Amino acid sequence: MKKQAFIEHRTIMTPGPAEVDPRILQAMTNPIIGQFEPEFLALMDEVMEMGRDVLKTQNRWTYLINGTSRAGIEALLSAVIEPDDRVYVPIFGRFGHLMAEIAKRAKGNVHTTDKPLGSIYTFRELQKEIDSFHPKVVAIVHGESSTGMMQPLEELGEYCRKEGILLIVDAVATLAGAPFETDAWKIDGIAAGSQKCLAAPAGMALVSYNERIETLIAQRRKIEQGLDPKSANPRMMPSNYLDLSQLQEYWGKERLNHHTEATSMLYAMHEALRLTLEEGVNERIKRHATNMNAIIAGLEAMNLTVFGDKDNLLPTIVCVEVPENVELHKIRRELVEEFSLEIAPGFGALKDKVWRIGALGYSSRKRNVLALLTALETVLQRHHANIITGQAVPEAMKSYRH
Amino acid sequence: MKKQAFIEHRTIMTPGPAEVDPRILQAMTNPIIGQFEPEFLALMDEVMEMGRDVLKTQNRWTYLINGTSRAGIEALLSAVIEPDDRVYVPIFGRFGHLMAEIAKRAKGNVHTTDKPLGSIYTFRELQKEIDSFHPKVVAIVHGESSTGMMQPLEELGEYCRKEGILLIVDAVATLAGAPFETDAWKIDGIAAGSQKCLAAPAGMALVSYNERIETLIAQRRKIEQGLDPKSANPRMMPSNYLDLSQLQEYWGKERLNHHTEATSMLYAMHEALRLTLEEGVNERIKRHATNMNAIIAGLEAMNLTVFGDKDNLLPTIVCVEVPENVELHKIRRELVEEFSLEIAPGFGALKDKVWRIGALGYSSRKRNVLALLTALETVLQRHHANIITGQAVPEAMKSYRH
Predict the structure, then answer these.
(1) How many CB pairs lie under 8 A apart between chains A and B?
(2) What residues make up the domain containing B396?
(3) Helix extents (H) in B106-153
(4) Do B102 and A240 count as a contact with CB atoms less than 8 A apart?
(5) Is ipTM strictly over 0.85?
(6) Which site among A71, A97, A149, B235 is 20 to 30 Å from A31 CA-CA?
(7) Which residues in chain B are contacts of A227 at CB distance < 8 A?
(8) Is residue B332 part of a domain?
(9) Nearest by CB to A5, which of B10, B97, B270?
(10) Which residues contact B69 (CB under 8 A, 6 or more apart)?
(11) Residues A250 and A118 placed together within one structural domain of the fold
């Protein structure tokens, strides 16, 4: 017989899953209620309303997908991309590749460009590609958690709208942790996840889209066969589970039965959005910047090198170069074993070159920042890395005082 | 500012989501840990191992999909169905329609048959269709929660194996609540959910498949573009999120990064499977039968009519006909308002004709059964239904003594 799971508390400074706010864990212990009971529908409506406030949008269609972040990205992309549709994906890290992969599976005619890891696109570069490829859809990552880079979106949104192009954004690494303005930036569709700056467990995606996408979805609408055996549409989406035309009518006033909403995770997201608004979206964004600035001040004081273009760093996740003669995974393991503290390795080409350090949601706390710097300095010193000791924590504290 | 969600405890006697075992809610309050940490990987491995025991299978590939039950069904069907593949779906209720819909979206050449609601197929009927249609895949529901019927699978499994046909089963309404033998019945792929007899919250699907399906999946394997930009396969599956070739390598020893596993829901499923094995799978199945027998004894003593073919009733969910001159939804609302007790309405053609009553997982308790009968009798009496009073609870108690 297996033992009951018992997980010791850890300080989690990775790009996610981040620590969950204890109030969200408490919310999840609410008992089950039927998914069409008025009390549950009211919570769903509140999730939609609070979701709009966090995303800074008036989009009526702002709701949850019962899956992790990429389920939300796939739901959006496969709703707007039909076979042979032209899709441009500017890639600057792993999650751009993911958008391209999803667009290809949706049978889009996908054009991609690449940038050296650690850099982002200028608006002119994007404009040039758009002008020559004439896409129906541009799909782009806002915060690339594989490189620690953030791509500005304002001019791109403006241009796409002017050109009649749909702009779909992956805001998984930025929502509620970096400035993000769905409507002001003219973003048509956006997907984010539960497990980063919203401080909830992984397993839910928040999506939002405007009337332009709603119109497309209406053209591809298909009622489930068990509810209407005659409903047919040759343009229907490839997935039933991620079909936004059905999910829309489940979250909308039709309340058409689709899946059984993940009750406890809905409670979690309700509380996560509520706590975000209680703190204030802008205040939470400021908190992420403050803590990340302190981390960077500390890392640099330690003589470590932050990876990538300094002008476009993510305020939620930073990549830091592994010093010479030090083994990336040995340091990670020792941080866990000695300090119960997690940081993450790199991905792909950066696999052996950087650690990825996040300060997300409930993990974005001064206590965690100082614990990280103390632990990392101690472990690197033990491994004879070429670092400066005794400066990281004082510099971080100085950063907090500014 | 919205208020924190507070849900009052209810007695839930619907086809799901059922009440969650409090020990599972407690397990979900375990803190977050990184998805590739050895402690978390050990829990994933235990989930696979315990999943096999609950499913009565030796299938190596027995793991979770981060989505509700239908995500598991779609993942399986879209893994084995390629465009123009012949798929036979014998429909006997709403969830058969769902399998057909998913198979059509996977671009299968789908043949369906229908039975009057409340009946199931004889093996001869199935055999005849198979012999004339020659499908590659037969997809069938084991427990049809929309009609309360259970379809025997043994002869069908035997025949499909002999004919080289893949048999995919939706065991959402039966797993751990009715006899179910994955290997002995020669089922190739099976999907079930978290929120019924496993007593966990909705939001996770348990899937299992054998080497025959593994071989097909290997032919459609595609490594994610962000991990291997050169990987390509024209036969790749339509979804990245539900791609079993990628999920297999995330749950397998390759540990290839895919989604961020839904940490708290994984804890829930670990505890749900553990509690199922602690009780004993066969003992849990017996408990469901005992409680359902008591419900049916009580309903019939009340002069209510159980819907459908008596020889093939599900031991987990029963449909009961709404008596004349009584309004289905008024009774449901009064049960909630006066007794904090939920039962469910019918679906589709049975929408106004039956209540669906479930006794699933943690909801399958004597206390709940007696509360249901007491409350239903009281409310029906208030509404002048033609029922017999004073007999339901004594008959249910007599049923327990047998």
Answers:
(1) 283
(2) 281-401
(3) 123-133
(4) yes
(5) yes
(6) A71
(7) 94, 347-348
(8) yes
(9) B270
(10) A259, A260, B170, B172, B191, B192, B193, B194, B195, B202, B205
(11) yes
